[in-house]
Structure formats: C-alpha cells, structure tokens
Design brief:
- By secondary structure, the chain is α+β, with helices and mostly antiparallel strands.
- It is about 15% helix and about 25% strand.
- The chain has 7 helices and 24 strands.
- It has a 17-stranded mixed sheet that branches.
- Strand 22 and strand 23 form a beta hairpin.
- Helix 1 packs parallel to helix 3 and helix 2 packs parallel to helix 4.
- The chain starts with about 25 loop residues before the first strand and ends in an 8-residue tail after the last strand.
- The N terminus is likely disordered.
Length: about 500
C-alpha cells in the first residue's frame, strides 16, 4: 500500500509537460450520497484555445486523485487514477464509493507534476435516519456578460451542506459588449452552436475564481434549463427557425459539453442528443430532492410561445411539460417517499404569474402556466398521495418570489397544497432593483405571491423537522466587483402547514 502523501505512478498515458496550469477550470464534486460522491476536473492549460481542446494534446492522459479526512492529506482514505480522453475534452468524473455517511472529505488531483487546488465535499446522512437539519443554497442564471460572480464569493463563505444549481449555468449568446466593461476575444463573439464553441464558452464561465471557489467548497446537484442549449427550446423543437436536424446536432453538442464541465455521474453521460437528467437524491429521511427535466420531453409552447391573455390551448388536458414517463416517475416518488420534505428541483416557475391585476390572466407560455392541466394534476396528486410537505425550488426568472401553490389558480380561495421559492439570478439581467414596476403588478395580480424582489443573488435554505426557512441573499450591484451581501427577507414553511409565511 502506498504511504501517506504518495500518489503512486503509472507510465501508461503519462501527462506531457504543460505550458500552463492544467487545472485552470478548478475542481468540483457533486451528486452526494451517503456512501460517496463524484469528483470532477478538466485538464485545460489553455481554456481559451479556439479548437475547444483546452491546449491539450490529442491523446489520453492519466489523472490521479486523492481523498482524505483532512485538508493536508495526512489521513488519506482513497487513491486512484482515471484516464482523461480528448473525446471528453480531458474531463474526468471519478465516482467514489464506500465512504462514511455524513462526513466531510478533502480531495485533489494530479496530472504529471501539476497538483490541483484542494476541494472539500461531504456525504449525506444514512438513508434510514432523520438528520437534525440541512442547510443548502440554490442558484441559477449566470450570464457571464451581465456582471461579476460576486454572489459565489459570498456563497463560498456560507456554512452549507450542498448547492443546487437549477439551470442557465451557461448562456449560448455570443459575448461582445457586456456590462463588465470587458472586451472579449473574437472567438467568443459568435453564438454557441457546435461542440468546440460550447467548450470555449464553458472555459470562459468556469475560469471565474468565485465560481471555482463555490464548486470547490461544496458538493453540487446540477441540472439544465434552456440556455445551456438555446433559449426556450422544447424537445427537438428550436426557438428559432432552423433545420431540425441541425438543432438535434446542436443539442447533442450542448449536452456533451455540459457533462464535460459538471460533476455528474456516468448515468448522466449523454447518448447523442439525449441525456437522463431527472433523478432523485435523498438527504436521509429529512428531504428528497426530485430533480426535474422540463425541456427534453415537453410539448411545444402553446400559442406561439411568448405571453398571452387568451390562449385556450394552454389548458388542453393532454399538454405535457414533463412527458408521460417522467410525470409517472414523479408521482410514484410521491407515493413511495418517506421524507418529511419533498423538494422539486424545477427550472421555470410552477405558480401562476399573472401580469394583469384586472380580470383574467395574462401569462407566459414557456413555464408551467402554458401547461395548466399537468400542473393541476401534479399538485393534486401530491395532496392525494399524502406528500407531507411539498416545496418547489425554481430558477429562470431573474427575480425572487415566495408564494403559495394553489390547487386551482383560477380560484384564489382554492386549497393551498405547497410552497414555491423562485430564486433570482447570479448575474443575468444586470444589477436589478429591490422593487420594479413589474413586481408591483405581480403583487397586485397574484394574491398567492407573498414576496417579490428583483436584485441578484441566491437563496439560502435551512430545513429541519419543524420548518423550512428560505433566506433571500441579495447584492446591490453586480456590474462592478466587491458588492456586499445581505438577507433581504426570510420566508418560512411550517411542517404540515402548506404555503408560505413571510
């Protein structure tokens, strides 16, 4: 057995001398379970290389890893190596098993003579126990060109068990002028369409130190929304007029690049334009995280997408956002789960967002408002199948909401069956404001809405056996670095009492 501090060696696939730091994109962990996690890094000494290969040679390279109880690696518990291949942009995703539950671990990688930064991760409690509490943050929507990732600096300083990212980790748009006041290389000016360009875009985003800090500090649970591929895509239907065959190729490239840059398990390795992203992760018997995929299996948005006050098709009983197979899987989970809190990781708001305080409802077609029958069925089934506490966490909107989920949004007096917390963006939309004209309209038109805020930031959650508390952590600006953070409001859900208290 190797002695403490020894990495071992393997001549096969030996790393070449690097002209830059091969760990320029940092390290990460994710998909925490009671007995293990997945680790991640990608070798990229030149992350802005135009061919998308990160400055690596077109051959496999062996990458070693260590996992220890302590930050100085005096008590190493796992050593191993994996082969980074050019087919996956020299990314690696070692899945670590046999760890002890509810424990903190430290990890690092080595390629040749180069050693990565140290990351910290954590396993979840045993599945048969109900832990005292859980603290996590959820975030979404981090358009690089819209501002600095200051929110992640603050998130990295929090005392969290894990992070949930709900999508729009990447934006497909070309990056020329931006709110940062930074001029980018011409390689970033075109829209992201093929694999090399997606890899280059991820290189831009993941080069940001605050994002690397948050990844290295906590295990992440990740999914995607639309911008990882293209705005408002639906199944194999692009938003814009383009050849369907080309869009399927684009989707395959986008999914591969996502996998190459995220701490995901092999179960999430794409098969061409398809990827298995809906999945369930448990935190003992305290909480189940049911991560949804609201893009791959949906019907096209009704009435030409956009916003509408008179779209009858959004009520059609056969319209689906989840697809039949995923929906049935979610409902079976409602029946089988023993968790006190059932958490749906959701991409676009489930609650109704009426834009008009007058009669009727003027709503967006892309989120659940365009798929009313399926929303009503999902909420009704959660109630009839005995879900003790249904809480939906959501991104997409670049705004903070706390609101009740109603059995029938057309009837404000109908039963409240759950709570939804919509989290704002990390940067998307620029600086934002505490209250906006749109927020004033939303509060007037949506009696189930208890809180609105339009600043940037993330949501910090503490959940125990008696209550769920969401702290809306916000920044006054993101278009320049160094913003302080504060808790704008806190909202609570009491065990066994559906709905939000602010």
């Amino acid at each position: 057995m190797l002695g403490t501090g020894e990495w071992g060696s393997a001549s096969a696939y030996a790393a070449p001398p690097m002209k830059g730091n091969p760990f320029s994109l940092g390290v990460a962990s994710g998909e925490p379970r009671s007995d293990g996690v997945v680790l991640w890094t990608r070798l990229a000494p030149d992350p802005f290389a135009q061919d998308g290969m990160g400055g690596m040679p077109a051959r496999p390279v062996r990458v070693h890893y260590e996992l220890a109880h302590d930050e100085r690696f005096r008590r190493v518990v796992r050593r191993g190596s994996v082969v980074a291949t050019p087919e996956l942009a020299h990314s690696v995703h070692p899945e670590i098993h046999g760890l002890r539950p509810d424990r903190e671990y430290y990890y690092r990688f080595r390629a040749g003579a180069d050693v990565s930064p140290v990351g910290r991760t954590r396993t979840t409690p045993p599945p048969w126990t109900t832990p005292k509490d859980l603290t996590f943050a959820f975030a979404s929507c981090q358009a690089w060109q819209d501002g600095f990732y200051t929110a992640y600096e603050h998130m990295a300083e929090e005392d969290l068990d894990l992070v949930v990212h709900l999508g729009d980790y990447l934006y497909e748009y070309g990056v020329k002028s931006n709110r940062r006041g930074v001029t980018t290389d011409p390689g970033f000016h075109t829209e992201t369409l093929d694999l090399a360009r997606y890899r280059l875009q991820y290189g831009l985003y993941k080069s940001e130190a605050p994002l690397q800090q948050a990844h290295a500090r906590f295990p992440w649970i990740m999914t995607f929304d639309d911008h990882e591929v293209e705005n408002n895509w639906a199944d194999d239907i692009p938003e814009k007029d383009q050849d369907p065959k080309l869009f399927v190729e684009r989707r395959a490239a986008a999914f591969q690049a996502l996998y190459e840059h995220a701490p995901l398990r092999r179960a999430q390795l794409p098969d061409g334009p398809d990827v298995q992203m809906y999945r369930r992760l448990s935190y003992g018997r305290l909480a189940d995280f049911t991560m949804l995929d609201t893009r791959q299996y949906r019907d096209d948005q009704p009435c030409g997408d956009g916003i509408s006050a008179d779209c009858a098709d959004r009520f059609a009983p056969d319209r689906s956002l989840l697809g039949a197979r995923q929906r049935d899987w979610v409902l079976r989970g409602f029946s089988r789960s023993t968790a006190r809190w059932q958490v749906l990781g959701n991409q676009a708001p489930m609650g109704q967002t009426d834009h008009d305080p007058g009669p009727g409802a003027t709503v967006w077609m892309d989120p659940w408002d365009g798929y009313v029958a399926e929303r009503n069925r999902l909420l009704a089934e959660a109630d009839t199948r005995g879900v003790r506490n249904l809480v939906v966490i959501t991104g997409d909107r670049h705004q903070n909401y706390a609101w009740d989920l109603k059995s029938d949004f057309a009837d404000p007096a109908s039963a409240t069956v759950g709570a939804e917390f919509v989290g704002t963006s990390i940067t998307s939309g620029g600086d934002g404001a505490d209250m906006t004209a749109e927020g004033t309209k939303f509060l007037a038109a949506n009696p189930h809405m208890k809180f609105f805020n339009g600043q940037r930031g993330y949501v910090r959650v503490n959940v125990d056996r008696e209550r769920w508390t969401s702290d809306f952590r916000v920044l006054p600006y993101v278009t320049r670095p160094g913003a302080p953070i504060s808790t704008r409001a806190s909202a609570v859900v009491e065990d066994g009492v559906p709905g939000v208290q602010v």
